[in-house]
Design a protein that fits this description.
nucleotide metabolism; alpha/beta; Maf-like; 33% helix; Maf protein; 7 strands; hydrolase activity; EC 3.6.1.9
């Protein structure tokens, strides 16, 4: 049986990370609303969105035999508040001010789904930022790197210099925890 792996994401970071572990895959474009339900824990929210992405991808591929779809979601969490992608420059600056000098969690969950099976894994990381002054925040937001990223930063980019301490998965903070992803793929016979 030949398994065809599909990534339910348009994220260039996820495509790059998945490529790093040497598995072949195709991309399927999905549009899943990313809104936290009232009373939903951050970890449950991230898992639900990742599963919905994988499920939406599988639905699109109904005619593809042996399709295996990977869905992932990553969010920044501070004081039980989920920091998604910033709406604009003011929102990005506000997020960075709140993260400044503090430790926050990054929750990254991966779901693998096929016609007859589904499994998931979650990576929890803690990232501590150095104190950021207004000039550093303004320069970072002006770079454009804050947009389209949970918590308004990219650890693999200019914001890497803000990170005083990381405990957990660097790739998970980027958007796809490679250890957990590799283990899931292995269990499905796809990695």
């Amino acid at each position: 049986m030949t398994i065809r792996l599909f990534l339910a994401s348009q994220s260039p970071r996820r495509r790059e990370l998945l490529g790093q572990i040497g598995v072949g895959f195709e991309v399927v474009d999905v549009d899943v609303p990313e809104r936290r339900e009232p009373g939903e824990s951050p970890q449950d929210y991230v898992s639900r969105v990742a599963r919905e992405k994988a499920g939406a991808g599988l639905l699109q591929l109904g005619a593809v035999p042996d399709a295996l779809v990977l869905g992932a979601d990553t969010e920044v969490v501070l004081d039980d508040e989920v920091f998604g992608k910033p709406a604009d420059a003011a929102d990005a600056a506000a997020m960075l001010r709140r993260l400044s000098g503090r430790a926050h969690r990054v929750v990254s969950t991966v779901w693998l789904v096929s016609a007859g099976r589904e499994e998931h894994a979650t990576s929890l990381s803690t990232v501590e930022f150095m104190p950021l002054d207004e000039a550093a925040i303004a320069a970072y937001v002006a770079s454009g790197e804050a947009f389209g990223r949970a918590g308004a930063y990219a650890i693999q980019g200019r914001a890497g210099r803000f990170v005083r301490h990381l405990e957990g998965s660097y790739s998970g903070v980027m958007g796809l925890p490679l250890y957990e992803t590799g283990e899931l793929l292995r269990r499905f016979g796809a990695g």
